[in-house]
């Protein structure tokens, strides 16, 4: 279904996906390193500094003007965490030059631009430009602060912090607010050199491209010294199951946020992964799920109620917005839906509908170059490789017994409730 060819060029894994499906050609550069407190904020800042200028285009304005000259090419950066890895992404999209009246070598220019962003950034005296670093530090503070202002995102962040206390996964990919001020242009440049020397590097090229031409372009522009091969560490640190923790936090909010975290004890690497995906879809992943219907629709207890998986860490998180007075009722009904899943209390129709939604969702994701890369990158983060056709076939083959087996492995870990300053119905006090 997806013809991905992977070739190592020095320390860079080059993934070529030749297709005429898109009108654009897309280049995606990914750098992966372990999540760590001492580097997380440096990594959160670095890609934004890199996209702010090169030696030839030493400002955001100059760089954006050049992108416009490339028939409106786009440049984006992103930060995510998958399992306990911190991933930086730089993506360039350019028009397929075959559709242009002039045969401008756009793909070649896009390769050169990415190489310049990575290896010839705008510098001042052998370090990053202080004005650019300070400007991006201000923007980073705003991105971190935005999570505190968005109570839905804040509650999810706080659940993860409490649930994964002492584990790398507790760290936010956007870094720590208190560490931003201490970053200097010199210190960030030293970290940039270290990241290029130590990170796992992957380059995806998607579009109307030939593998040989891609590899030639990479060899010409992405010359990096080989590095010793390291053992692939597991993406998961497992905390022993202890007592269920309940955390109640009070702020000046009108709507309560009830977020519940479970350990699934299943990750992308495990045989039960497809069954877990199906379990989540029936439990809370989609609009036909038990949480949506029973907590939101029937009981009218929640403004929203849904669940999502972190496939490389083995977490399931329930998110709901409720009236503070409905805390105990909402918890009880959510618990009942989980128990129903463990009891196999779901219909064949729910199974079939969920399989269809998962299949459609996957196919829709593959319809965009960005989505295609994200699906394929699971196979880099994990030691297990799952081709797309296997993913679809594996989902179709999941049985009721498989779903119940996956449900039985799910363990309640942490309950987090963000509520207003007044007491809840049971008079609980906050932290």
From TrEMBL:
Residues 183-356 form the Peptidase M16 C-terminal domain. GO terms for molecular function: metal ion binding. It holds the Pfam family Peptidase_M16_C. SUPFAM superfamilies: LuxS/MPP-like metallohydrolase (SSF63411). It comes from the Bacteria. This is Hypothetical conserved protein. It comes from Geobacillus kaustophilus (strain HTA426).
């Amino acid at each position: 279904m997806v013809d991905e060819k992977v070739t190592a060029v020095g320390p860079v894994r080059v993934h070529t996906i030749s297709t005429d499906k898109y009108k654009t050609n897309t280049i995606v550069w990914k750098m992966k390193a372990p999540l760590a407190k001492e580097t997380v904020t440096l990594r959160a800042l670095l890609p934004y500094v890199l996209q702010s200028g090169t030696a030839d285009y030493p400002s955001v304005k100059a760089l954006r003007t050049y992108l416009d000259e490339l028939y409106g090419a786009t440049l984006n950066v992103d930060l995510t965490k998958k399992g306990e890895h911190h991933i930086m992404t730089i993506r360039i999209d350019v028009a397929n030059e075959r559709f242009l009246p002039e045969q401008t070598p756009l793909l070649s220019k896009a390769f050169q631009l990415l190489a310049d962003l990575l290896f010839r950034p705008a510098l001042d005296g052998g370090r990053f430009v202080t004005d650019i670093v300070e400007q991006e530090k201000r923007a980073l503070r705003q991105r971190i602060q935005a999570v505190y202002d968005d109570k839905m995102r804040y509650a999810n962040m706080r659940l993860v912090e409490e649930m994964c206390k002492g584990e790398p996964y507790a760290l936010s990919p956007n870094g720590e607010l208190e560490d931003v001020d201490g970053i200097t242009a010199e210190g960030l440049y030293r970290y940039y050199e270290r990241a290029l020397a130590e990170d796992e590097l992957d380059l995806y090229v998607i579009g109307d491209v030939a593998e040989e031409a891609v590899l030639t372009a990479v060899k010409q522009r992405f010359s990096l010294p080989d590095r010793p091969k390291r053992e692939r560490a597991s993406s998961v640190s497992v905390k022993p199951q202890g007592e269920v923790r309940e955390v109640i936090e009070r702020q000046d909010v009108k709507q309560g946020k009830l977020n519940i975290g479970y350990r699934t004890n299943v990750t992308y690497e495990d045989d039960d992964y497809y069954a877990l995906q199906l379990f989540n879809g029936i439990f809370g992943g989609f609009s036909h799920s038990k949480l949506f219907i029973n907590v939101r629709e029937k009981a009218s207890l929640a403004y929203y109620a849904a669940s999502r998986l972190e496939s490389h860490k083995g977490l399931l998180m329930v998110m709901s917005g409720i009236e503070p007075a409905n805390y105990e009722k909402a918890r009880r009904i959510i618990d009942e839906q989980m128990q129903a899943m463990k009891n196999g209390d779901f219909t064949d129709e729910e199974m079939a509908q969920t399989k269809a939604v998962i299949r459609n969702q996957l196919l829709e994701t593959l319809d965009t170059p960005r989505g295609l890369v994200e699906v394929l990158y699971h196979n880099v983060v994990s030691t297990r490789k799952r081709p797309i056709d296997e993913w679809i076939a594996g989902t179709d083959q999941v049985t009721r017994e498989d779903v119940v087996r996956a449900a039985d492995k799910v363990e309640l870990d942490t309950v987090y409730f963000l509520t207003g300053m007044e007491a809840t119905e049971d008079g609980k006090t906050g932290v």
